[in-house]
Amino acid sequence: MTFDYAARRERLARLLPAHEVHALLVTSPVNVRYLTGLASSNAAVLVRADGTALLATDNRYIGAARELDVPSVEAADVAGRLKEPGAGIEAASMSVAAYHRLGEGLVPLGPVVELLRAVKDEGELELIRTACEITDRAFADVAPKIAPGMTERELAGLLDRRMTELGADKPAFDTIVAAGENGAVPHHAPTARELRAGDLVTMDFGARYQGYHADMTRTVSLGPPAAWQREVYELVAAAQRAGRHALAPGASAGEVDAAARSVIEDAGHGTHFRHGLGHGVGLEIHEEPFLGPSRTGRLEDRVPITVEPGVYLPGRGGVRIEDTLVTREGGPELFTKTTKELLVL
Ligand code: GLY
Ligand code: MN
Ligand code: MN
């Protein structure tokens, strides 16, 4: 997939006067990739308000850089090579050490490229859709193999391997598998804990495809669920549905969070849901915009985003249900299509 990188740099160039800088020195590797197409761990691009740009990278990547539609130079110190007095810099990406060395005359800025990246073009959405299809298929292929005696780590390994077999670059993040009481820890790292009949098992995983991420969580029951397990499951499912229905261009990030959170609070479980409702996905697994009680800003059209409420009961277990969707005029498009009925395996 190739993108119109020059058009992206032009959009950025037009934003710079509002930030009172004549140029932005972009040092975040993901932002450099977004603006030039160069995927690397060490590159910078200077984008000027007049639309011109210069890319710098080291000799590991300079060959790839020279194939691109932006002038490039080789430099060990990529940011130092491109710095211009009065240019903006990305405060979130430049280290304090680099700032002490280079920062004089530069203007630290908050997210600029990140906010541009939040709204995707149809080509990007196609890649995220494919990443989500791989994720759904991996779940469908692995679910019949989930059985008592398998460890959390083994199950995570099956999901990761299947996603790679189906064409993923790699897993989008470290896969989470949490069985029984471990389900009460939202970001539990898989262990040698064996799955047992009577467990709820939460799997949070996704594929990365051509740099773009998918993110999905499903909680299944190993054997018939107890009454409390079904009750918590149905509560989280209702909250997740309310959150999905609230996703719309123009909705505020806080309102969408509240639509789901209020369902959980009204059931008396507010203190058992202590993370944000969701986040944008794209070239990063967590990116703008973020949905949470104190988040400001409004959603736009064509923003891929997760909706992932959970209820976590210490010592007992938990349920999280997460989809990746994209905002659309007329209602969100669901990318992760695996059923949200409670699967009893
Ligand atoms: N897998 C990390 C998250 O859901 O945000
Ligand atoms: Mn997730
Ligand atoms: Mn997520």
UniProtKB/TrEMBL annotation:
Keywords: Hydrolase, Metal-binding. Residues 126-328 form the Peptidase M24 domain. The keyword Calcium does not apply. It comes from the Bacteria. It holds the Pfam family Peptidase_M24. Coiled coil: none annotated. Residues 8-119 form the Creatinase N-terminal domain. GO terms for molecular function: hydrolase activity; metal ion binding. Belongs to the peptidase M24B family. This is Peptidase M24 family protein.
